[in-house]
Predict the 3D structure of the following.
Amino acid sequence: MEKIIVVGGGQAGFSTVAKLRNLGYNGNLTLICEENELPYQRPPLSKKYLTGEFEKERLYFRPQSFYSENQITVLLNTKCQEIDQKASWIKTSHDRLSYDHLVLATGSVPKKLPPSMGGDLLGVHTIRNLKDIHTIQSELVPGSKTLIVGGGYIGLETASALIAKGLQVTLVEAAQRILQRVAAPETANFFRRLHKKNNVKLIEGVGLEALDGDQRVQSVTLSDGSRIDVDLVIVGIGISPSVELAAQAGLDIENGIKVDTKGQTSCPNIWASGDCASFPHKNTRIRLESVQNAIDQSEVIAKNIHGNAVNYDPVPWFWSDQYDAKLQIAGLNQGYDQIITRNNLATDGVCFWYMQGGRLLAVDAVNDPRSFMVGKRLLEKGIQVNPEALSNPDSNLKELLRQ
């Protein structure tokens, strides 16, 4: 009987095994999870789970009964240590297993501050898994002084959650502004105002020089020479794809595990999806760190393993919850030369439409789900819109879909 092994207990790994069974695949199916937890959602970790508003049971994609009923073998607390692509077997921390197809959904790891900067002091944390959150939760004392390093979405979401828990929050971003790598100044300006309104102290254009303390962090020194007393530091400076296993096996690596439009690596019976994989997209190669990508790419791989011939050509989407603001993003904004701002008075929301040469690239919608859905559909259908129609608050966005 054919054997498929999926390495990784996150969204991509779960989506792969669930889709294979949904398609009617009846061979042996094994899911390897490095954590001692069934596969669970990660986006709530920096949001409602951190604040205690989200119970642990709600994090899990499915209960144990789902895996038993679908004859999916789940190996918890198991690390894949080696791949022999020629002999088609893997070595784990407990056993050696053969496969006909291997799917790598190894995800990513958070970037950490080096020990030379004090990154190994107690009280310095990153956010990636349940263990991280449980450790941070044990140190959340109302009124304590917290420094967040990094003004991307993880940093801003964490700031929102800690303010809700009654902590004093300072966020430092080395770039000239928050969200510099991922969003337009207009979107950054909206969230800067929102965080300042909620008493977050934002320091932009200033880097972190060092964390100071004996065993536990007590203060930080910034690149402008200023010092800040802190009780807790949370580092959100990005993630790196987990490629070590694939690299050791001799698979091609290019900003992640290199796959084609079908999800195949340089070895025909090894596939990769999610945060760890880079794939061709519109004459370039990209890697997406999102739930949408983890689900959709994994489901394409499941279809292709099952005998279909499907290419992965996504319209990426993403979301971020901060205070009472829900940001929804569709598309990729790289190369934009114009931003069109459109307010939604009915929802007190706002949309920022990214254009390039009059062509729609992406949309950032804040508290405006209808505009997000219209933008997403426009991108999926390849419908080009008149910038004047977007900028006119009286125009009906739904009419654009009928063009």
Remarks:
- The two ends are 51 Å apart (CA to CA).
- The chain has a mean pLDDT of 95.
- Residues 281 and 313 are 7 Å apart (CA to CA).
- DSSP finds twelve helices and 26 strands in the chain.
